[in-house]
Model the fold of this input.
Amino acid sequence: MRTVALTFAVSMILAGPGCQSLGITPPSNQLLPETKAIRESAPPTPAIPRELAKSLQGPYVVEPGDTLSVQPVAIDSPLRLPSDQTIFADGTIDLGTYGRPVVAGKTLAEIEPEINKLISTRDKSKGPNAVTVRLVARNSKVYYVLGEVNAPGMFPVVGSETVLDAIVKAGGVTKRAGEQDIVLSRPTEPDGCRVVYPVCYTNIVQLGDTTTNYQIQPGDRIYVPGRGLLEGIFQGRRCKSGVCKKPQVGCWGMGGGAGGCSTCPGGMPGMTPLPTIPTVSSLPTIPTIPGL
Done:
C-alpha cells in the first residue's frame, strides 16, 4: 500500500504544473548540443577585447535607421536644409532641392565632402564647406540578449559595453537562469565556423573575474539558458568549461602559493602592512636572581 501511495505521489509531481520548476523536465531555454560542444572547445582566454582590455571601435559606418544632422557651417547662412536626416531603407537621405544622395555604407568623413560637393554643384554661390554632418542617432548597430533575463530584447551598441553591461540592461538574469552556462555568440557566415564563447556570470559578478566579461560587438547574441531545481542542488558536481573552473586566488591570502598572491596588482588601496609579531625566540631572556 505504501509503494502504491509513493508511486502515485511521484506521478502527481511529474504531471503537475510545477514539474519544470522542480528541474525534473528540461529547462525552457536549453543550449543546443552543437552550442555546448563549441562552447567547451573555446580557448581558455580567447584573444578578444574584454573589460580591462577594451579596444576602440573603427569609424562608424552609417546604415538605414541611423539619423544624421546636416547643418550649415555659418549661423547666418541662407542655406536651408531639413536638419535631422533619417537614412531610408534604400540608403539615401532627403536634401530637398539638392536631391537624395546615397550615404549608407559610408563614414561621416566620406559623407560630408560628398554633400558639400553636391550643394556647390547645384548652387555656385555655396562654398566647398557649406555644411557639416554629424551623427545624432545610432540605431543600426545592435546586440541581442535573450533567454532567462527579465527584459530580453535588442539594444544599440554604444561601443564600450561588456557582457555584464548587456545583461544588466536586459534586466538581469531570472531565478531560473543557468548562470555558468551563458554564451556569447558572434555572427558568422552561413558556411563559416561558428564562434561561441563561454560566459562565467557568477565569476564576473562575485569574483570580479574579467576573463569572460567580453566587450560587445555589433550583432552579438548573449543567450542565458535555463536550469532546473535539481541542477541547482547539484551545481557543484556539474562539469563546467575550463574557463569557469579556473581556480581563483585572493590577493590578501596568507602569502603566495595556493593560499594567495604574493603581491596584489597595484596594491590594496587603503591597506597598510600589519606589524611584525615577535616570536618567543626573539624575546629578551629574563635574568635569574641568585638565592631565589
About this structure: The chain is about 20% helix and 15% strand.
